[in-house]
Amino acid sequence: PKTDIVFLKVHKSASSTVMNILFRFGETHNLTFAFPVGGGNQLFYPRHFLARFVQGFSPRRPQRFNILCHHMRFLQPEVQKVVSHSAVYFSILRNPVQLMESSFVYYKGASAFSRAHSLEEFLSHPYLYYNPANRDSHYARNLMTFDFGFNPNGEVSAKRVQLMLEAIEASFDLLLISEYFDESMVLLKEMLCWDLDSVVSFPLNSRDSSTKSPLPDTIVEKIKNWNRLDWEIYTHFNRTFWERIDRDIGRERMQQEVKALRERKAELARTCLQGTGSVAPKDIKDSSLRPLQHGNAKILGYNLKQGLDKETERMCRRLVTPELQYSSALYKKQFPQRQP
C-alpha cells in the first residue's frame, strides 16, 4: 500500500469525505500528517502553500511527512519540501455549476455574496458585488482554479487553458470526480493498492436538501460563463477520468467494484448508525460528532448505535467523526506536548 500522499482538498467537492478516508488510513498505519502550525485545518489558506506553514518543518533538517491533506492553495515546489519524492498526488473536482450554488450558500458571509439576495441576483451583475482585490473573493469565482494555484481572474484563451491543464496533469497522478464518487474511490483504491475497507466512507460535511434548489438553465449558463476556467478544468478531467477507467479497469469490472463498495457501505451503515443515515445538526445526540455549521448551510451528521462493542464502536466513530474534530485528535496524538 502507498503511504506517501498529497491530496489537494478542493473546496465544496466531497473533499471532507476523502479527508476522513486519509485520516483513518493514516491513523491505522501510524503515519505522520503535515499539520498546519499550531493545529487547525487550513495551511494558511488562501495564501499559496509554503513548507514553513507545516508544524515541525525545519529547512535545516527537512522532515518528510506521509500525508499532506489539509486545505491549501497548491504550490508544488513548496509541497515537495515536506513530502517524499515518490508521493502520490491526487485531487477531486466537482461540476462548477453545483460548486457555485454550494459556495453561495456555504460562504454567504464572503464579501462577494453577503449583499446579493440570491445567486441569480449575483450573476446578473457580478461586478456590483465581486471585487477581485478582496481577500475572500476567490470563493465567488473559479474556486477550483484558485485552489490549484492559478489566477481565477485570468483571461480564458485557448493557450492559457491548455497550459493550465498541462500543469495540473504534470503535477497530479489522479483527479477524482465528486459526481462519480464511488467510481473515484475504486480508482483511488487501485492506484494506492489499498483494500476496500480503506476507501469505504459515509458522506461528511454534506448539507441538508432543504437549502438546495434546482437551477434554471439560464442560471446554469451564467455560472459556466462566470466560472469558465473551472468549467474547462472540469470538462477536461471528467473526460480523462472515463478514459482512464476504460484503459485501466473496464466498465464491467468497474460496475462490480462499485457494487461491492456500496454493499460494504450499506453493511457498515447497518452496523454503525442509528436510523438510516445522516440527521440534522439538532438531532445529533453526541456533541463531539457535530459538524461545524457554516453560512446558511445546514450540515448533516450521524448518530452511532448504542451498545456496540469497543472495537466496533471505535471503527464506527472514526467513520462519522467530522473533519475538525478528527484533525484535532490526530494533531494531539502526533504532537502530544503541544495543545492546539
Automatic annotation (TrEMBL):
Domain of life, source organism: Eukaryota
Keywords: Glycoprotein, Golgi apparatus, Membrane, Signal-anchor, Transferase, Transmembrane, Transmembrane helix
The keyword Ribonucleoprotein appears for this protein: no
Predominant cellular place of this UniProt entry's protein: Golgi
Topological category with respect to the lipid bilayer: Single-pass type II membrane protein
Any GO CC annotation of this UniProt entry: Golgi membrane
One of the protein's GO biological processes: glycolipid biosynthetic process
Compartments in which it is found: Golgi apparatus membrane
Molecular-function annotations in GO: galactosylceramide sulfotransferase activity
A Pfam family recorded for this sequence: Gal-3-0_sulfotr
Alphabetized InterPro entries for the sequence: Gal-3-0_sulfotransfrase, P-loop_NTPase
PANTHER family reported for this sequence: GALACTOSE-3-O-SULFOTRANSFERASE, GALACTOSE-3-O-SULFOTRANSFERASE 2
Family designation: Belongs to the galactose-3-O-sulfotransferase family.
Name listed for the protein in its UniProt record: G3ST2 sulfotransferase
Name of the gene encoding the protein in the UniProt record: Gal3st2_1
